[in-house]
Design a protein that fits this description.
heterodimer, A: about 375 residues, alpha+beta, Elongation Factor Tu (Ef-tu), domain 3, six-stranded mixed β-sheet, about 35% strand, B: about 130 residues, three-stranded antiparallel β-sheet, globular
């Protein structure tokens, strides 16, 4: 049986096309993916991302415990700050990618991918033996709304946000009279906020945000545009670009891993070695040189030999070109500017390795 | 978009239109293009190519995914809609008059091959 978020009736009333995503019935588009994409780049969009997981970790050993399960250094995470992390297995492979928020002294919130909640919780609980921590999966109690786009900040002020909030921070605030947790994070490559609320307030907040956002040209945005937006920003999608056989180094996430973390974490030997020597494969950005579109699973060739595989691919409405992420052999010859071939329906199509992100954030906020 | 009279539709959402001169026009139904969403890429066969009923003869891509298009009857391609290849978004506006895909000359027993195709009203009913 597919699960529904507390905003399901709102989506069907808006005549969204609903699809199954990781066991959830979710809106893929309301009107048009391209139109919704451009709305987020130009104005502001509202997303229902309530399918994502919320796991609370608290207790005396929280820091030591979290430090064991992610390569990042949680002891350096300050109150009300957030950090992008990965949950790694013993081989350095990715169980999931996460954002960890510090909500209080020895109190952390882990937000994880909908498709990975069960695996994550099992892994987290299994790893907690011997640590004095409480692990509380409260995914079913919370709804998550994302307000994303260059006008997101103005809209949040109209909704009652009174204080300035830096990027990657989280605060308990009141929005439209409702007590919520607001974090300045997102998955679109734009400025934006994510609002964590109790399920009972989800519908009220959804309506209120759309109503107050009208003057900013707000639109509800489906998972289709969420995918093209994150791809333009070269943000990874678990299951496409990340899996248990891929390390954070191979996935191009070395920037997120501290080089001086003393504590042991799962997969540390492999990750530290790869930080020095590189991985078996590497993630690259690709731009197709003709009108064809590279899709997940298509093979990539270099000098006539198979070198890798496309993990995500779609048209970029902003670039007017078709872009993709791919893993290729960790070969120094394959770098920015190199021409490779993608096999599409038994024909080779030229593509160029280009820099990520494909589209730069235009509205940078302070970290 | 207006729906031409007397079209036949396949369960895989292609339409077949009898031009009355022993040629037929093939394309995607309005339901198909609505379900696909923004169409961004179209790959059509070359003129002169032969296909059997059920063969993949073209590919359409929306933002999200690539989908194959199947021959509703056997035929030889005599004309392809090059303007649809250049501006695939016209399929979203009108997949019949502007966004048709190919014209064919039937090469099989057209009568029996049409037997599993549905009239538009019946096709619409099947979808509900």
């Amino acid at each position: 049986m597919t699960k529904e978020t507390f905003l399901h009736d709102k989506h069907t009333a808006l005549k969204a096309r609903m699809v199954d995503f990781a066991g959830w019935e979710m809106p893929v588009q309301y009107t048009s993916i391209i139109e919704e994409h451009n709305t987020v780049r130009e104005n502001v969009g509202l997303f229902d991302v309530s399918h994502m997981g919320e796991v609370f970790v608290s207790g005396k050993d929280s820091v030591e415990f979290l430090n064991k399960i992610v390569p990042q250094d949680i002891s350096k995470l300050a109150y009300e700050k957030a950090v992008y992390c990965q949950l790694t297995n013993k081989n350095g492979g990715l169980i999931d990618d996460l954002i960890i928020y510090k909500l209080g002294i020895l109190e952390y919130l882990v937000i994880c991918n909908a498709s990975r909640i069960d695996e994550d919780v099992n892994w987290i609980v299994r790893n907690s033996k011997g640590f004095d921590v409480k692990i509380d999966n409260r995914s079913h109690e919370y709804s998550l709304l994302a307000v994303q786009g260059p006008k997101a900040d103005e809209l949040m002020r109209k909704l009652g946000l009174t204080t300035h909030q830096d990027s990657f921070t989280i605060k308990p605030v009141e929005i439209a009279g409702i007590k919520v947790l607001v974090s300045r994070t997102g998955y679109t490559g734009e400025d934006g906020y994510e609002i964590l609320t109790e399920n009972k307030n989800a519908e009220f907040l959804w309506d209120k945000i759309l109503e107050e956002g009208q003057i900013f040209g707000i639109k509800p945005i489906g998972l289709g545009a969420r995918d093209t937006l994150r791809l333009e920003a070269a943000l990874h999608l678990y299951g496409n670009d990340l899996d248990e056989n891929t390390t954070p180094v191979e996935a191009g996430l070395s920037w997120s891993i501290p080089k001086d973390k003393k504590e042991y974490y799962n997969g540390k030997e492999v990750i530290e070695q790869q930080l020095k020597e590189g991985g078996r494969k590497k993630l690259v950005g690709i731009k197709m040189l003709d009108k064809s579109i590279a899709r997940h699973g298509y093979d990539v060739y270099y000098k006539g030999e198979k070198t890798g595989v496309i993990t995500s691919g779609a048209p970029s409405p902003i670039l007017g070109a078709n872009i993709a992420l791919a893993y290729v052999n960790n070969n120094d010859e394959i770098c920015t500017g190199t021409i490779v071939q993608v096999m599409i329906r038994e024909k080779f199509h030229d593509a160029e390795i280009i820099k990520r992100p494909f589209v730069q954030k235009r509205n940078r906020v302070k970290f | 978009m207006s729906i031409p009279e007397n079209i036949l539709c396949s369960k895989s959402h292609e339409f077949l239109y009898d031009n009355g001169d022993n040629t037929f026009t093939i394309g995607l139904t309005d339901y198909a293009v609505e379900q696909l969403g923004d169409i961004v890429f179209l790959e059509l066969p070359e003129e002169g190519m032969d296909f059997k009923k059920g063969d993949t003869f073209a590919t359409v891509e929306s933002v999200k995914a690539a989908s194959e298009i199947y021959m509703p009857v056997s035929g030889k391609i005599i004309n392809v809609n090059t303007s649809a290849v250049e501006t695939p978004e016209i399929l979203n506006e009108d997949s019949y008059e502007k966004g048709w895909l190919v014209r064919i000359e039937p090469t099989g027993d057209i009568e029996s091959e049409q037997a599993d195709l549905l009239e538009y009203e019946d096709y619409k009913e099947e979808l509900e």
